[in-house]
TrEMBL record:
Protein name: Methyltransferase FkbM domain-containing protein
Pfam families: Methyltransf_21
SUPFAM superfamilies hit by this protein: S-adenosyl-L-methionine-dependent methyltransferases
Annotated ranges, domain Methyltransferase FkbM: 49-248
Stored Gene3D superfamilies: Vaccinia Virus protein VP39
Superkingdom, taxonomy of origin: Bacteria
InterPro entries the UniProt entry points to: FkbM_mtfrase, SAM-dependent_MTase, SAM-dependent_MTases_sf
Length: 277
């Protein structure tokens, strides 16, 4: 398929392909969030970038953190994966491996919903995404009410109406793409991987399923985990408990200020004890 791509500049000097320039800018500002609370990378590390989108995090690791990383970039939504492939070919063809599949709890086929007006929301769980729009609206209004005086003077009901128009436009203009789902354990077996030094997950409601796809024998081979998660059905506590059972010592969760009043959190976990150097 022919994907209409644009050009954007990220990290002040790196030209990349993108679908929406504003999203590329947002992603480039967000990526440093992942390397906090003891999470780090070193030469020779193997990184899984799950939910790689157009590759901003993978490129940031390669270009600005350490060029001696092997990165597996997973993106199952076809139009987004095309742009990811373009960016990898342009900047890191030997270090970033494009994986045009999704990860989950088992190998299967799944239909993904792609939102051209908000590609970062594209998901295999469209009903959940639609139902979660209330969180998006609440957080947006809360941030606007802390903005300039002119924004604070506008009645909440006006903001609600305007945001509903935008969200309706996003969800109405959707497309469907069939994709393959595999598991972390299957990838490790197929590629002969003995470890994952950093597992990063930002997969729009799929985070719990992805963790379920790790076989018991592989858990000890995963050194660090960082993820964005949606605290649906007590998911935050379930994931923290799972990681504790699997031997992670340093587990922290935070919430970006812009995500206050939503159920979206960042979680960091490593096997290094906080008291270790």
């Amino acid at each position: 398929m022919k994907n209409p791509t644009k050009k954007a500049v990220i990290f002040d000097a790196v030209p990349i392909y993108c679908i929406r320039k504003k999203e590329a800018a947002w992603l480039s500002r967000e990526v440093p969030v992942y390397l906090q609370h003891g999470i780090s990378v070193s030469s020779g590390d193997i990184v899984f970038d799950v939910g790689a989108h157009i590759g901003v995090f993978s490129l940031w690791l390669h270009l600005q953190q350490n060029p001696q990383l092997t990165i597996y970039a997973f993106e199952p939504v076809a139009p987004i994966a095309e742009v990811l492939s373009q960016n990898v070919a342009a900047h890191a063809p030997g270090n970033i491996k494009v994986m045009p599949v999704g990860l989950g709890k088992k190998e299967e086929k799944l239909t993904f919903t792609y939102y051209p007006k908000a590609t970062i929301w594209s998901t295999g769980f469209p009903l959940t995404a639609y139902n979660e729009r209330v969180n998006t609206k609440t957080a947006t209004i809360a941030n606007l009410k802390q903005g300039p005086l002119a924004y604070r003077m506008i009645p909440t009901v006006v903001w609600e109406t305007m945001i509903d128009v935008v969200l309706n436009n996003v969800f109405r203009r959707q497309q469907s793409f069939d994709g393959a789902i595999t598991t972390i354990s299957a990838i490790m077996h197929t590629h002969g991987l003995e470890r994952i030094d950093l597992l990063k997950i930002d997969a729009e409601y799929a985070e719990w399923d992805i963790l379920q796809g790790i076989e018991e024998r592989h858990w000890s081979k995963i050194k660090q985990v960082v993820m964005e998660l949606h605290d649906i059905d007590d998911r935050l506590q379930k994931i923290k408990s799972l990681l504790q059972r699997q031997g992670f010592h340093n587990i922290t969760h935070t919430q970006q200020e812009i995500l206050t009043n939503t159920n979206i959190h960042q979680l960091y976990a490593s096997r290094k004890n906080e008291n270790q150097p």
